[in-house]
Design a protein that fits this description.
CATH architecture: 3-Layer(aba) Sandwich
Number of domains: 1
Order of helices and strands: EHHEHEHHHEHEE
Radius of gyration: 17 Å
Strand content: 15-25%
Largest sheet: 6 strands, mixed
Number of helices: 7
Helix content: 25-40%
Distance between the termini: 11 Å
Length: 221
């Protein structure tokens, strides 16, 4: 990765697809395979992030600072090329993609934020006042998604990436992207709680021919 450069408001079309040099030596099964390389970008700041409220299906815009964070993210990505750019359909993710230089991402509901059900719009402190000891990835949300459902959705997103021959960039949300990382590494869903993920950061999930699926970069500003 190149050091971050000054934020630039210009937009950019997807660059010309670069040749895929991803065929690696065969694994133990004797079959060569493509090396997967997936970058995860969390969207910029929203008003509810500032006050700690859980934001799932509520479709909030970015704040002014969040838009600046998205442009700075674009500066980090400027020297990279991607074979596919995906995004959650929620506007905070789509707008981050646009401001980062990708105005036409492929939208997929697999990248939507976790459905918090009855916990939508309230803080973790308020939730634990009702349900002491509550943990999202262990307990889920009443009226929302269960941890098993979140994990299944994350796994399905990884399968989607496996159909793309090349480097993928995905714009999404804090809790679903942590679940994707846990599923990628074939960890239990509860391991996602130990992965801090800040706004407008980049993470990289890479398939290594010797060591398998790696979390090669995480929460990089």
């Amino acid at each position: 990765m190149h050091p971050a450069r000054a934020a630039c408001p210009r937009r950019r079309r997807h660059r010309e697809r670069e040749p895929l040099a991803a065929i690696r030596p065969a694994r133990d099964d004797g079959q060569a395979r493509l090396t997967l390389d997936t970058y995860l970008a969390r969207h910029g700041e929203t008003e509810w992030i500032l006050n700690g409220r859980h934001t799932g299906r509520t479709d909030l815009p970015l704040t002014a600072d969040g838009e600046g964070e998205a442009r700075a993210l674009g500066a980090r990505l400027a020297d990279m090329t991607f074979d596919a750019v995906l995004s959650s359909p929620l506007q905070r993710a789509v707008r981050t993609a646009e401001l980062a230089g990708y105005p036409h991402p492929r939208l997929t509901p697999l990248l939507r934020e976790v459905d918090y059900g009855e916990y939508e719009g309230i803080t973790s402190k308020e939730i634990r006042a009702r349900n002491p000891g509550w943990q999202l990835y262990r307990d889920g949300c009443p009226g929302g998604e269960t941890p098993a459902h979140v994990y299944a959705r994350a796994t399905e997103f990884i399968r989607l990436c496996e159909t793309i021959d090349g480097r993928v960039l995905a714009f999404g949300h804090g809790h679903i992207l942590r679940a994707v990382a846990a599923a990628w590494a074939r960890l239990d869903i509860t391991a996602a709680a130990r992965l801090q993920l800040d706004v407008a950061t980049l993470s990289r999930l890479r398939d290594d021919p010797e060591h398998g699926r790696l979390i090669a970069m995480w929460n990089a500003p």
